[in-house]
Amino acid sequence: MRNIKMIIEYEGTNYHGFQRQHNGLAVQEVLEDKLSFLAGEKVTLNSSGRTDAGVHARGQVVNFFTSSKISAWKLSLALNNLLPDDIVVTSIEDVPKSFHARYSAKSKRYCYYIWNSSFPSVFWRKYALFFPRKLDLPIMQEATQYLQGEHNFTAFCNGKSAVKSFVRHVTALEIRKDEHLLTVDIEANGFLYNMVRIIVGTLVEIGVGKKEPGDLKKIIASQDRKKAGFTAPPEGLFLQEVKY
Amino acid sequence: MRNIKMIIEYEGTNYHGFQRQHNGLAVQEVLEDKLSFLAGEKVTLNSSGRTDAGVHARGQVVNFFTSSKISAWKLSLALNNLLPDDIVVTSIEDVPKSFHARYSAKSKRYCYYIWNSSFPSVFWRKYALFFPRKLDLPIMQEATQYLQGEHNFTAFCNGKSAVKSFVRHVTALEIRKDEHLLTVDIEANGFLYNMVRIIVGTLVEIGVGKKEPGDLKKIIASQDRKKAGFTAPPEGLFLQEVKY
User: Do A119 and B89 touch (CB under 8 A)?
Assistant: First the structure.
């Protein structure tokens, strides 16, 4: 048996998230169907983690075991031929049997885009939160320091998660602006459910003066979801990279 | 009567170009219909020029005369509410009666995007030419010098144009690369039919070694369309800005 690692790019707009499920088409289902057809055997994917409905990925990572003899390169070309336009394999390689897309991951990086202009953008409408009110960038940038480092992020997690610990280490958090486009770039050793989207929603509330940067200390300490900001919508979120 | 200038952004994918026509829906038709409804009178747009089917715009400029009393700002908000997602007004202002979107224009700037990677991009598939063969960027950049300045661009024009002169002045031509994305950025006092797309096609042929930079001198002098390169497809082309 071979273990194959792939990097996948997808536009999440038309999918019910990455993970295979009953109530709608998921990216995983499309990939597994085409792979199983090419390999001539049932293929099951491990992924670095799920992404929600509407969330995009530039660097989702998956691995799978197969007895197929097709070279990795040929498999990627055949797969891209069969896949719909909104899913692409951008890298493929044979890896040691011990590699697991989820358990071997050291950290993940996400980008969240905000289109901050009086007018929406035709080209970013499916890839950014459209936010017409003025955002105070320096204040938002000041706020990022309170989120960096190791914290209990319970206040930034939706729903009841079955996770053992709510402590995560945010290793990088940066906000850039290029004309009307704001990019929140965040890396951590792991993320809780909706964590990036709640962090972005909270930073936006700080950017309009509804909250202050220093409030983040209290929000984190409260471990209370209601104290943090709104959950930013999925279309602005991109899983950028998984590091091993 | 007031004269109103607007800047329009649109994704050309679903339109038969900018200019109103009989065989398909054009951006102009959508804009004129909504504007006429809001102004309560028939509105006819002047534009900086047509764009072909599938071509996009970040900065198409139009003007129109109206006796409507609605403030420009309110008109833009109402218009954006009525317009489909792929057309947006990004700027609006009252201008002197002498202003004409086409005849007052001093120069135009276009961008053409090429996705130069072994794998297509999910996010650029509708906005770039996907070109998997390796392109020699320095050679293409060297070639741009031959196209800058005032030349007779007959060799870079498709079909029989009714224009008086084929002489155009290319005031800027630059090729940038950011990872897999190549951007051809070109400004001129005017463009012939398909001129940018033929220039890009010719630069691509130079980038793969099919033509040499120095060939451009002969191609220009020949005034023969068959000597230049292929016409790059419309989806990579953006009308970026019209200067007055």
Answer: yes
A91: chain B residues, CB-CB within 8 Å? 119
3-state secondary structure string across B14-69 = HCCCCCCCCCCCCHHHHHHHHHHHHHCCCCCCEECCCCCCCCEEEEEEEEEEECCC
Interfacial residues of A (vs B; Cβ cutoff 8 Å): 9-11, 56, 58, 76, 80, 85-91, 117, 119-123, 125, 127
Percent of chain B residues topping a pLDDT of 90: 95
By Cβ distance, the residue of A10, A76, A120 closest to B88 is A120
pLDDT one-digit tens code per residue, B8-44: 999 999 999 999 988 889 999 999 999 999 999 999 9
Alpha-carbon gap, residue A16 to A51, rounded angstroms = 9
Assigned CATH topology for domain B107-243: Alpha-Beta Plaits (3.30.70)
DSSP H helix total and E strand total for chain A: 5, 10
- In chain A, which residues have their Cβ closer than 8 Å to the Cβ of B127? 123
The token pair at B215 is: 């060939």
Closest Cβ opposite residue B121 in set A9, A120, A125: A9
Residues ≥6 apart with Cβ < 8 Å to B40: B68
Instruction: Mark yes or no for CB contact B125/A87 under 8 Å.
Output: no
Average per-residue pLDDT for chain B: 96
Cα distances (angstroms) measured from residue A157 to each of A40, A165, A190, A228, B106: 41, 12, 12, 9, 54
- Contact by Cβ (8 Å): B12, B234: yes
The predicted pLDDT at position B236 comes to 98
Contact criterion met (CB below 8 Å) for A120 and A235: no
**How far apart (Å, rounded) are the C-alpha atoms in residues A191 and A158?**
12
pLDDT of residue B23: 85
Every domain of chain A and the residues it spans: 2-95, 107-243
Residue with tokens 């220093």: A214
This prediction has a pTM of 0.92
Q: pLDDT, tens digit, for every residue of A137-177? A: 999 999 999 999 999 999 999 987 678 899 999 999 999 99
Structural contact between residues B116 and B180, judged by C-beta atoms closer than 8 angstroms:
yes
| Topology annotation, domain A2-95 | Alpha-Beta Plaits (3.30.70)
Q: Which residue of B has its CA nearest to A117?
A: B90
Instruction: Check pLDDT > 90 for residue A104.
Output: yes
At residue B112, the 3 state secondary structure works out as strand
